[in-house]
Amino acid sequence: MSSLRRTLRAYPTLLRVGFAEVVAYRAEFLVWxxxxxxxxxxxxxxxxxxxxxxxxxxxxxxxxxxxxxxWVVRLLTSTWVVxxxxxxxxxxxxxxxxxxxxxxxxxxxxxxxxxxPMRLLVVSPVIILMIASAPEHLALGDPRLLAVxxxxxxxxxxxxxxxxxxxxxxxxxxESSLGIFELWLGLHAIFSGYLVPLERLPGWVGRLxxxxxxRSMLAFPVETLVGLDPWPQALRDLGIxxxxxxxxxxxxxxxxxxxxxxxVAFGG
Length: 268
What we know:
The protein is mainly α. The chain has one domain. It contains 14 helices and no strands. Helix 3 (about 40-50) packs antiparallel against helix 4. The longest helix is centred in the C-terminal third of the chain and has 35 residues, at about 230-265. The two termini are about 30 Å apart.
């Protein structure tokens, strides 16, 4: 309990430090923002395809809402702690982090959570554009769906964060865990709905996506936002997302603990 109280007292300071770093490195931050433009490319393609009529539940305005929503959700929930962890483990700079009184993962999480306000500021014009261009497809008028959407953003962030921690912790055991991360990026692009809405995927691919965690990372929040996920289904999907987040956190923390013991044993 004393450790928890110490962490809660220190966390606001960690967030302020993390936010100051984002502001200090704002040019790098903006460059990263501009590399996440694939939803706009896919929007142009699908918007042209749907010019002759809707494709299933997707007409042109719903494609606009979906891909703008996908971009917003991706920016608000992404975390790249795997890069930092891998670097810290390889060059030994993890050692001083382990000596601090706070758990290292709290420090990592604060660094990445601190970037969310800046990201929200960047995406706010796109949110306004989305509301103006496709209001009929957004679930903002239903308080229940809006609540599920906001909770799903939190759940997606935690799921992605612990996924990154899991892959980053593999650097304790592998020469380079970043190769696994790059494979993960490819799978995420396909099975999360980032490039193509899941219901527009070929049948077996779409069915497979329903059993993988990627949908909980992006497609579920976006589908809830644009009204593709009705209330009972959205509530069920929120429970599935929670299970994925908890399960991934348990596995990630176990791999982290085993890796730290190995790191210390070898004099890291």
